[in-house]
Design a protein that fits this description.
heterodimer, A: seven-stranded mixed beta sheet, 49% strand, B: mainly beta, six-stranded mixed beta sheet, five-stranded antiparallel beta sheet
Chain lengths: 116, 110
Amino acid sequence: EPEVTQTPSHQVTQMGQEVILRCVPISNHLYFYWYRQILGQKVEFLVSFYNNEISEKSEIFDDQFSVERPDGSNFTLKIRSTKLEDSAMYFCASSEAGQGRNNEQFFGPGTRLTVL
Amino acid sequence: GEDVEQSLFLSVREGDSSVINCTYTDSSSTYLYWYKQEPGAGLQLLTYIFSNMDMKQDQRLTVLLNKKDKHLSLRIADTQTGDSAIYFCAEMDSSYKLIFGSGTRLLVRP
């Protein structure tokens, strides 16, 4: 069964460093998402992406964050200068459609980001 | 703003039924979802219900939706120890992003 994959599973970085989190969505999906879950808190939406552009972004997704689909398979989240409060589990998700039928979002296993 | 609330913890005996409850605020939600998260793992989509339905059954899972009260429940029949996990309720808002509840930790006792 096709699934969303994410790498790395765990990333440790120093405050102020740039990190890139990688995702490979399900191959026939057209909509891509990043969510994050700070330890003990709710899963929060960060950004959605369709047709090579951002569809929507949350207040969390400030200028330090960017997303890219550099080729036909990968979808990346970059944090330019990490802060301690960026430590969280980051989930990538994809869906075939944005609304209506086949809009179910399938999640990857997550990347745990630890900022020291 | 939109909000989804769940009770934090539920403990049941193996073989019993589990009922996990959820309330949401966005009356325009068209789809509501249940996800399962096992320790150290990602979010597994269990089932969903469209807002014009009252009930959806999928093997051991039954989803009930009371749109008037904005209340969603997930019933797991014949709960097994492998069902122990955190269960998240989520609504899809008008911009197609998911709004999650804080999750209900289900503990199944042998």
